[in-house]
Amino acid sequence: MRYLPLFIAAVLTGLISLPARADFHVFACEPEWTALARTFMPDAHFTTATSYLQDPHYIEARPSLIAAMSRADIAVCTGASLEAGWLPALLQRAGNTDIQPGQPGLFFAADHAQLFAPHDHVDRSMGDVHPEGNPHVHLSPDQLPNIAKALAERLGAMRPDNSADIFARYIKWRVNWNFHSANWQERAKALQGRSLVIQHTGFGYLLRWLGIDATMDLEPKPGLPPSASHLNQLLADPRLEDAAAILIASHQNQKPAQWLSAQTRKPILVLPGTVTDDSKTDTLAELISEIINRLESAMPEVANGSL
């Protein structure tokens, strides 16, 4: 809450004047970065390359995205090799010299975070492993403020005439984020020590922050589709008895989770891995709140307050 006086001062001095910035074009690789950048520059033009129903690892560099990238003032992406399969080709075809590696117009969120589980050595036998670490940092309550601050600073530097407004909006965002984070921390007390079956590590940062064990994975290796043999190994895993539910993202194939659920009667939680157009999950704060709501609903003893 230490940012509240700054925000109030910004309002009183007329910093939040909401000037039109329709001439500024933002290209976001994932919906979470559209939502965050729009918080700071709500009147800019936005193009989002992916949706919550798509796997951000695998996107086609289609003509509409090339055109959007060619006119973008800034591209906001995750980095840490998440978009390695399609972003380099998109940047090359767009031919926008302001949005290239090392230029201010290319912003990687992962550059402003401490990633979990980096690897000194990566080869194909390990599956879809990122050497920099888990790139799905947008669901990290502790990491997002650093990323948001860095993004606000970058936008302000690119539009100095609008920097005061951007900073004021960042302060407002940070106050709101701190409020939500305090609520999440209180609710996490009842979730600590519980366990889930997951598919991939998309929710990994949030689950670790909540104290939930998510070491049982439907994928035999990161990025590899669940196989019958691996699912049978999971079924024989004694830890499975303690798992409260099976958690998968909206873009993932539900059949492996459905098979395991049929064998164990564990509920399946299908949740968006990023923000959506639904008002319940259209910002990162609302998304995290909804994920926690659904986790609590899958654990009746938590929801009923008996723990």
Automatic annotation (TrEMBL):
InterPro entries: Bact_metal-bind_prot9, ZnuA-like. Residues 1-22 form the signal peptide. The keyword Signal applies. The keyword Amino-acid biosynthesis does not apply. Keywords: Signal. PANTHER family: ADHESION PROTEIN, HIGH-AFFINITY ZINC UPTAKE SYSTEM PROTEIN ZNUA-RELATED. This is Zinc ABC transporter substrate-binding protein.
